[in-house]
Amino acid sequence: MIPFRISVPASSANLGPGFDSMGLALGLYIHLDVADSDKQAFFAHGSSESEENHFIWNISKQVAERYGVTLPSCSVQETSEIPLARGLGSSASAIVAGIELANQLGNLQLTDEQKLAFGTELEGHPDNIAPAIFGGLTISTMLEDDIPSVRLHDIDLDIIAYIPEVELKTEVARDCLPDTYERNYAARASAMSNIVVAALYSKDYALFGKMLENDLFHEPFRKVLISHFDLIRENAKMLGAYGTALSGAGPTMLSFVPKGNGEAVKQEMAKQLEGYQVKLLKIDTKGVSIS
Ligand SMILES: Nc1ncnc2c1ncn2[C@@H]1O[C@H](COP(=O)(O)OP(=O)(O)O)[C@@H](O)[C@H]1O
Ligand SMILES: N[C@@H](CCOP(=O)(O)O)C(=O)O
Q1: How many other CB atoms are found less than 10 A from the CB of residue 69?
Q2: How many whole angstroms from 49 Cα to the centroid of ligand 1?
Q3: What is the CATH T-level fold of the domain 157-281, as seen in this structure?
Q4: What is the pLDDT of residues 85-132, one digit of tens each?
Q5: Measured from the CA of 171, which atom of ligand 1 is nearest?
Q6: Is the CB of 169 within 6 Å of ligand 1?
Q7: 252 lines ligand 1 (CB under 6 A)
Q8: Span(s) in the chain for CATH 3.30.70.890
Q9: What function does this protein fulfil (predicted)?
Q10: Which fold is adopted by the domain 4-152+286-290?
């Protein structure tokens, strides 16, 4: 086997009201370096011990079982820049990495649509899985037999992430949400989402930022879990950000800033947020890749 590397980007889901549907691939990566070996070995990020039941390797085994193949022995070394449980899609990126590992090792020749369907089945929603596979900004949903997904190109914005030290499991942040929404409320909430998409499409970034901050599906119920939610939003706005939203289920928040202003806004915001990693992130446009 010729050694190869699988790289999968992080992603930020929801973008305000695009709950469980919109996602943006970001330039932080998980890498799997795969090489020949007599014995199966999976080395997790930062570990020198092989882990037989590692999350990613388990995903690969599930894919292999689904397609009726046995994966050959190899050694896999994981490295990752994606912090866990911060709302940057680490679980979806790990799932996509596991699917791609099985795809390569088992020579399965999976299409992107098959990867998206399997990943969504495992994650429960396609908003992080789709950008991790396709790159860029994706809008997706689940039908019974299909995961329709559209990609929006040319997002001319700088992006700043405020990543706190604390973790917040997506499962916990989902438990805070109502089970149902009353009809008029749901209609308004989905209208916000429609405008977010239309504003992005027409590059009306001021309107995009305004509607981004008017989510009704999840942020009103989750903000109690997020330290400095209002402060981050207000201060970023004062520094010229178009808008700031929870990244995925949080606790990371993400600001969308006029192109070229990101570095200056990042530096000012970092002064105010002790204990946070404040990062200017690139949009990943490739999605999962092999090198
Ligand atoms: N690279 C990885 N290796 C092992 N487990 C992972 C990896 N990435 C994610 N996970 C699992 O997924 C969990 C985080 O998923 P989640 O709560 O959905 O947060 P997020 O996807 O926002 O980072 C981790 O606590 C861990 O159990
Ligand atoms: N739509 C999901 C997205 C979760 O993203 P994550 O990066 O926090 O795992 C939700 O809002 O629950």
Answers
A1: 14
A2: 19
A3: Alpha-Beta Plaits (3.30.70)
A4: 999 999 999 999 999 999 999 999 999 999 999 999 999 999 999 999
A5: 17
A6: yes
A7: no
A8: 157-281
A9: Catalyzes the ATP-dependent phosphorylation of L-homoserine to L-homoserine phosphate.
A10: Ribosomal Protein S5; domain 2 (3.30.230)
